[in-house]
Amino acid sequence: MRTLRFGDRGADVMQLQLALSRAGYAVGGIDGIFGPKTLNALRRFQAANGLAIDGIAGMNTWTALNKYLLGYFNHRIERGDTYYKLAKRYGTDVKKIVSANPDKNPDNLIIGDTVVIPFGFDVVPTNVMFTSSLAETVIKGLKARYPFISVEMIGSSTMGTPLYALRMGNGAKKVLYNASHHANEWITTPVLLKFLEQYAEAYIGGGSIFGLDAARLYDEVSLILVPLVNPDGVDLVNGALALNDRFYVQARRIAAEFPKIPFPAGWKANIEGTDLNLNYPAGWEEAKRIKFELGYTKPAPRDYVGDGELSAVESRAMYDFTLKERPELTLSYHSQGEVIYWKYLDIEPENGFAIANRFSEASGYSVETTPYESGYAGYKDWFILEFERPGYTIEVGRGINPLPLSQFDKIYGDNVGILAIGLDAAAEL
């Protein structure tokens, strides 16, 4: 995390404001602007935590704040500690502590042992711009709170950023949900992560999600999420790359060839200028013909199909991982339009349309056929072509990408049913 000072702006400042507010220091709203209220909150935090009161978020300050982004901290058991007392002391609840420490006996805590203490707030933030570093922190926090969630690295991005898959459930049937193939559609990443957190909470509490029993879904289906397919592009769009970074300089040079596309807000591609959702082996040559006619004949902020099928390391990683897992059903999250795309050309997977209609009833989104100019070489297209199983592109929200965070609550409310029904439908396939 970069050092932040008064006057700085951006996604890192939003994360600073988030951590301070979670720690109990009012910042006057999370707006990404390091102003007087944020400065005052930071100085008070530094004073309370024995740090240099310089109003600068440097390494030591970030280290002290990190637990508030992770959503948990480690506590060494002392004489007289019980989970009830710890929950009361730290503003959390016993259920969360028990879940985070499955190897500990609450009735026989051993002095000197370390236990994970989740805070009372949710791990996944919905009021800050996501970056690859924040996503990695959130994933680590979810794994600590819910040890039954497993995390694996399925590949690396062009810049070497890990591509993570998260897994929850014991079922033989699998679903694979992905988000942020497109950089300026990053709002889809917290949609998936928030669903995972809500599902995990329902599971440990013996509850339901969208009216579906969480324990049954857990036993019947394995949920797999790849929440951030294009981390480098997302970092570019949300200002997490230094202006002198060679990849930023390269992207700016690419964008200069397409002056009608705003930079970086209009950037959809990976950091090298390949549109990842036009890079799969499903009519790739036709996608190339269509996009070349539109002028996208070289690396671009959007719509360049790449030098060949699966030429981008990110799409190759998704391709290889999907072949390994062979899920019964996939959802690919994009923005915008409030639309569900459900088939590829004339291939209509069995039960595909019926499931799409269930999604539509839950969300209010319309079920449509992908427009011809966008109907080739996408992940959904390849999945249906390869497996002839239900695969969907879900276009969330309305407006101009990147969609504002003010839309998140509605987007999530519209989509929690789709995400839960996807599990239920897979169990029946």
Keywords:
15 helices, 429 residues, single chain, eight-stranded mixed β-sheet, 14% strand, two-stranded antiparallel ribbon, 40% helix, globular, alpha/beta, 12 strands
Sheet with most strands: strand arrangement:
3-4-8-5-9-12-10-11
Q: Provide the residue-averaged pLDDT.
A: 97
- Number of helix segments? 15
Number of strands: 12
Oligomer: single chain
Biggest pleated-sheet summary = 8 strands, mixed
Please estimate the helix content: 40-55%
Question: What spatial form do the alpha-carbon principal axes imply?
Answer: globular
Percentage of residues in DSSP E strands: 5-15%
**Gyration radius over CA:** 22 Å
User: Secondary-structure element sequence?
Assistant: HHHEHHEHEEEHEEHEHHHHEEHEHEH
Specify the structural class: alpha/beta
3D architecture notes:
By secondary structure, this protein is α/β, with parallel strands linked by helices. The strands form 3 sheets. Strands 3-4-8-5-9-12-10-11 form an 8-stranded mixed sheet, with helices on both faces. Strands 1-2 form a two-stranded antiparallel sheet.
Helix and strand layout, with pairings?
Blueprint: H1 11-22, H2 36-48, H3 59-70, E1 72-76, H4 83-90, H5 94-100, E2 114-118, H6 132-145, E3 150-156, E4 162-168, E5 173-179, H7 188-204, E6 208-209, E7 212-213, H8 214-220, E8 221-226, H9 231-237, H10 246-256, H11 284-293, H12 313-325, E9 329-335, E10 339-341, H13 352-363, E11 366-368, H14 379-387, E12 391-396, H15 408-428
Parallel strand pairs: 5-8, 5-9, 9-12, 10-11
Antiparallel strand pairs: 1-2, 3-4, 4-8, 6-7, 10-12
